[in-house]
Design a protein that fits this description.
With 350 residues, the chain is α/β, with parallel strands linked by helices. It has two domains: 12-211, NAD(P)-binding Rossmann-like Domain (Rossmann fold, 3-Layer(aba) Sandwich); 215-336, N-(1-d-carboxylethyl)-l-norvaline Dehydrogenase, domain 2 (Orthogonal Bundle), CATH 1.10.1040. 47% of the residues lie in helices and 16% in strands. Helix 7 (213-234) crosses helix 13. It is globular, with a radius of gyration of 20 Å. The N and C termini lie far apart (47 Å).
């Protein structure tokens, strides 16, 4: 994994002045923009950490428990074969987004509109906002509230927080980037998109670009529909799911339903190619539990409404049956609501 440091031949003070004086990211693509990660959980800490370790000025905005640990000890990134500590600024205040050239939004889909309202009060007019979130409509929701250039990044990475200020990398770590539909009408939309992709590439993060971000987002949604709910309900890692014949059948059926909905929405997807991609993901992220599974374990709200639930809602609107996705969505909602057994009853039944 290659890295570079934009400050390697200049003093820290001069580098800071260069970053502050930089124009919008599309105007001087060779410079490193000031980056804010809003929602510094596992995804935000990983990509923000990768940018910071490559020399970019990054601020992570997140929960106090992680922020305190990062400010005190640095952000720890764990890989299978090594552990690194990255010095990066962290904060709990959205006001720290005021100087950002690029804002990476990494909050849960359920928090998108609240995040948009918070950012609208602070982010510069010429800042670019990038959604690194599950689901297909978060960039649109951001653009509805924040009148800025908004991009969507499809995220392929296995990560989880392994303690306060510690992010564990479990596999992959690449992005697909495109402009939100209204943003794509701007004269500078594609040059800015390419500059943001180059920003990630300089940090060792593979980032391809696409003119059809809707298809890319639906592709990721279909993959999530195959993995997330089943991983949560079965408390299973991806590789174990893919080894089970009955589970493979359920996953394949969930994929087929989602693809039919996408096609009715005018998004052309190749079902056979998506099924093959799901098995490749299972191999590449063999040890990964889905984000939905992680949320259930931690007693946090899941994003299932934006995944299988979104497919169900779209199917209902179109008059299409989606029984597998409907069942998976309903079961995760039931599991999310908690356990009816008391502690005493659980002990007695064990």
């Amino acid at each position: 994994m290659t890295t570079c440091s934009s400050a390697s031949t200049t003093s820290p003070d001069q580098a800071e002045r260069d970053f502050r004086d930089a124009a919008a990211v599309n105007e001087r693509p060779g410079d490193t923009p000031r980056i804010v990660v809003f929602g510094a959980g596992a995804v935000g800490c990983y990509f923000g950490g990768m940018l910071a370790r490559a020399g970019a000025p990054v601020t992570l905005i997140g929960r106090a428990s992680h922020v305190d640990a990062i400010e005190r000890n640095g952000l720890v990134i764990e890989w299978a074969d090594r552990r690194e500590t990255v010095r990066v600024h962290a904060s709990t205040s959205v006001a720290d987004a005021a100087d950002a050239d690029v804002v990476l939004v990494c909050v849960k889909s359920t928090d998108t509109q609240a995040a948009a309202r918070a950012l609208a009060a602070h982010v510069r007019d010429d800042a670019a906002i990038v959604s690194l979130q599950n689901g297909v409509d978060n960039a649109d929701k951001l653009r509805d509230v924040v009148d800025r250039a908004v991009y969507a990044a499809v995220v392929y990475v296995g990560t989880f927080m392994n303690g306060p200020g510690i992010v564990r990398h479990a596999g992959r770590g690449d992005l697909v980037l495109g402009a939100e539909q209204r943003t794509s009408r701007r004269s500078d939309a594609f040059s800015r998109r390419d500059a943001i992709a180059a920003m990630f590439a300089r940090a060792g993060v593979p980032c391809s670009v696409t003119d059809d971000i809707a298809a890319a987002l639906w592709t990721k949604l279909v993959i999530n529909c195959a993995f997330n709910a089943i991983s949560a309900l079965g408390r299973a890692r991806y590789e174990r799911m893919a080894r089970s014949g009955p589970i493979r059948d359920v996953m394949t059926r969930a994929i087929g339903e989602a693809v039919r909905v996408a096609k009715k929405r005018g998004v052309a997807l190749d079902e056979a190619a998506l099924v093959a991609e799901v098995w490749r993901v299972a191999q590449a992220l063999a040890g990964q539990h889905s984000s939905t599974a992680q949320d259930i374990v931690r007693g946090k709200p899941t994003e299932i409404d934006a995944l299988n639930g979104y497919v169900v809602a779209q199917a209902d609107a179109l008059g299409i049956d989606a029984p597998v996705n409907r069942t998976l969505h309903a079961l995760v909602k039931l599991r999310e609501a908690g356990d009816d057994l008391s502690a005493a009853e659980r002990t007695a039944s064990s």
